[in-house]
Amino acid sequence: MLFEDTYRTIENPSEGIFRDRGSKFLGYAYPIQSDSEVRAIVASLRSEHPKANHHCWAMRLTTDRSVFKLNDDGEPPGTAGRPILNTLISKDLTNILVVVVRYFGGTLLGVPGLINAYKMATEEALAHAVIVEKTVNDIYTISFNYLQMNNIMRLIKDADLAILNQQFDNDCSIQVAIRKMQVNMVLDKLHKIEGVNVRYDHSI
Question: Could you write out the three-class secondary structure of 12-44?
Answer without folding.
Answer: CCEEEEEEECCEEEEEEEEECCCCHHHHHHHHH
